[in-house]
Design brief:
Radius of gyration of chain A: 21 Å
Oligomer: heterodimer
Structural class of chain A: alpha/beta
Distance between the termini of chain B: 32 Å
Helix content of chain B: 40-55%
Strand order of the largest sheet of chain B: 6-9-10-3-11-12
Structural class of chain B: alpha/beta
CATH topology of chain B: Rossmann fold
CATH architecture of chain B: 3-Layer(aba) Sandwich
Number of strands of chain B: 12
Number of helices of chain B: 9
CATH superfamily of chain B: P-loop containing nucleotide triphosphate hydrolases
Number of domains of chain B: 1
Chain lengths: ~425, ~250
């Protein structure tokens, strides 16, 4: 197949037309997604509609870029693999969205299947509502299906996504992951995304946490500086289950991390924590929707942004509490540290509550470093630059200390420390 | 040690201090008393180096050096310590790490080697114990979740570890019960000697029963209106500042 470049929504649709007979899975699901994508286009693109959900993030640079087929076969896999932080003994390696079992180390107590061999589009995803999910559904070629059986502790598993460009031209890939934890199962999944050059990484992940199960889902997004990272997670948590997630956005020129979490059974909990460290002209958007559909559930969310240069951080957090969801405990906090006068943060919390016996709070702080704190440190002999560094590190340390898994937290701390060393230099 | 001459200071364009003259010789502890709003804390902050306070005239010499020309961290390295009236909370900064960073910063300037975590903790635990502070205060974040009394004791702990030559205590006694007050006073008395001076800012005679000052100064309306021996503090306790104003007028 000749390497053909596409641009805009039309480019993706042309690619679908060319590939459709070879793509795995139900062709009707693909066709419906293509129809939805044809209707809405890329948000912010010339054919795309203005939407409230995309108020602060414009994907025009993505819509105007040309992407071509990944040429992963030409790649020196060892070289790119060396750039992946090693967090767990068991790891699944994806290069340009394709599962590479020969480079992976499979876990013993978890069932792994490739989407290419066993395509399942899931039941929670909404290609009819989300343009990028439609794009993924239309073009997904591979992905990880991760199954932890009832009562099983799956331990620690790393899912490493690596992006590359093809002969100096941008590529696009749309992995489709499905994670299922049976009753009282446990898993700590650490997703790392890294890469080289210019590419679009558009993963869609569906998560099912059954009764009493606990999934810790930690993501370290450190994509190549010229990359686009657009990810969407749909999670559903049954009675007494926990979906405990954290995302650290450091890389990519343009990032959107969107999470839809639904508390479907009583006494379930969802944590959607995150931090975004941005510099230059980076733009990163953390958007979440938490739906409480059962009583006595808790949702917790703290999102921290540290912004330098002319970067822009976005946090949109929506909590919906259904009428049946009495005794809901919802907490949401956005804290931003602006280290440059040209950096910008946009925070939009939304609460939609139909139950009467709930406790929901949200708050937002935005600021520079506190001059009182700097002065206090200086009066103790700490030079000003070191005082500033201590305070930024403290803010970042607080952001990642919610991650309880030691190996995962250590990897996040390293990434954060390296980021700050680069910024402070 | 400390020579303040005709010092005038404005904060946000408003003059607060109108020509202070105050000398604290080596080895002496002086008390600075005065009503609220008289400029006591402003003087303390200016001596520590707050840059949003504007010195409009006068000079401050510390060991013969121009103190006002030094950065706050240079003053600390040279042995100046301010115990804050309202100690600042530092979320995410561990108290032990903070104290070690401060001590090593000061040691570096003095040409002394850095202390590692083990060496430092040995010193810090011993000092904390002497000040009757629980060990876990070293593990917590700086002043976060501390009671008012704990914050004040944490200031005294910092002073004990940094071992300054000139300590300025800004109402370190306010909000303390009598036991805590004795501990704070003990922390200051421990450092007393020919090479240590202190300026103790307080409202109350009570603290001065435990830290007996060599001199007492009274500040009202941004001026030192009276100076005297320790008996002046007792006189103020009996007559109040109002009587003193009348006398000056």
């Amino acid at each position: 197949m000749t390497a053909e470049a596409f641009s805009g929504a039309g480019g993706f649709l042309a690619r679908y037309e060319g590939l459709r007979q070879y793509l795995p899975g139900d062709p009707e699901v693909r066709a419906a997604a293509a129809e939805a994508f044809r209707r809405v286009g890329v948000p912010g693109g010339s054919s795309g509609k203005r939407e409230e959900a995309w108020k602060y993030t414009n994907l025009r640079p993505l819509a105007e870029a040309s992407f071509q087929e990944p040429l992963t076969s030409l790649l020196d896999a060892d070289a790119v693999l060396n750039e992946v932080p090693r967090i767990a003994a068991s790891r699944l390696i994806f290069i340009d969205g394709r599962f590479r079992p020969e480079l992976s180390e499979l876990p013993a107590s978890v069932t792994i299947r490739a989407f290419a061999d066993h395509p399942r589009f899931g039941t929670l995803v909404r290609p009819d509502r989300e343009a990028l999910v439609a794009l993924n559904t239309m073009l997904a070629e591979d992905g990880a299906e991760i199954d932890v059986a009832d009562g099983t502790d799956g331990g620690l598993l790393q899912l490493a996504g690596i992006g590359t460009e093809a002969s100096g031209r941008a590529t696009a890939f749309h992995p489709r992951h499905l994670i299922t934890l049976g009753r009282n199962a446990r898993l700590t999944l650490v997703e790392t995304t890294t890469g080289r050059g210019s590419y679009l990484h558009n993963p869609v992940t569906e998560v099912h946490v059954a009764e009493g199960a606990v999934l810790a889902h930690i993501r370290l997004q450190d994509e190549a500086p010229a990359a686009f990272h657009v990810s969407t997670v749909y999670a559903e948590v049954a009675e007494g289950g926990v979906y405990d997630s954290f995302v650290l956005n450091i890389g990519a020129r343009l990032t959107r991390t969107e999470v839809h979490a639904r508390l479907a059974g009583a006494n379930a909990a969802v944590h959607l924590n995150g931090a975004q460290l941005l510099h230059g002209v980076q733009h990163a958007d953390f958007t979440s929707v938490v739906r409480h559909d059962a009583p006595s559930c808790a949702s917790r969310q703290t999102v921290k942004n540290v912004l330098t240069g002319r970067s822009r951080g976005v946090f949109q957090g929506r909590i919906e509490v259904a009428r049946v969801a009495q005794k809901t405990d919802g907490y949401q906090m956005s804290q931003a540290l602006l280290l440059s006068p040209d950096a910008e943060i946009d925070t939009k919390p939304e609460l939609e509550i139909f139950a009467d016996d709930v406790k929901c709070s949200h708050g937002a702080t935005v600021g520079a470093l506190d001059p009182e704190q700097i002065f206090y440190l200086r009066t103790r002999g700490v030079p000003e630059a070191e005082a500033r560094s201590i305070l930024v590190r403290a803010f970042l340390t607080e952001a990642v200390e919610v991650v309880t898994n030691d190996a995962a937290r250590a990897a996040l701390e390293r990434a954060v420390e390296q980021w700050w060393e680069r910024e402070a230099a | 040690m400390l020579e303040i001459r005709n010092l005038a200071v404005a904060v946000g364009g408003t003059p607060i201090l109108h020509g202070i003259d105050l000398v604290v010789p080596d080895g002496e502890v002086h008390a600075l008393m005065g009503p609220n709003g008289s400029g006591k804390s402003t003087l303390a902050y200016v001596l520590a180096g707050r840059d949003d306070y504007e010195v409009t005239s006068g000079s401050v010499r510390y060991d013969g050096h121009d103190l006002l020309a030094m950065e706050p961290e240079e003053r600390a390295a040279a042995g100046v310590f301010l115990a804050f009236q309202a100690p600042v909370e530092l979320p995410g900064v561990g108290n032990a790490n903070f104290l070690r960073t401060a001590l090593n910063a000061v040691r570096r300037v003095r040409g002394e080697p850095d202390l590692d975590a083990v060496q430092f903790l040995r010193i810090a635990r011993a000092e904390a114990k002497r000040l009757s502070m629980p060990d876990d205060m070293l593990r917590r974040n700086v002043n976060v979740g501390f009671s008012g009394g704990e914050k004040k004791r944490n200031e005294v702990l910092q002073m004990a570890i940094l071992r300054p030559r000139l300590a300025i205590l800004d109402e370190t006694d306010s909000g303390l019960d009598i036991d805590a007050l004795k501990i704070v006073a003990g922390g200051v008395n421990e450092l007393r000697g020919p090479d240590f001076s202190a300026l103790v800012i307080t409202h109350h005679q009570r603290l001065l029963d435990h830290i007996v000052p060599d001199r007492v100064h009274v500040l009202t309306g941004g001026r030192v209106v009276r100076s005297g021996g320790p008996e002046l503090a007792r006189e103020l306790e009996a007559r109040g500042y109002a009587g003193l104003d009348a006398e000056v007028a």
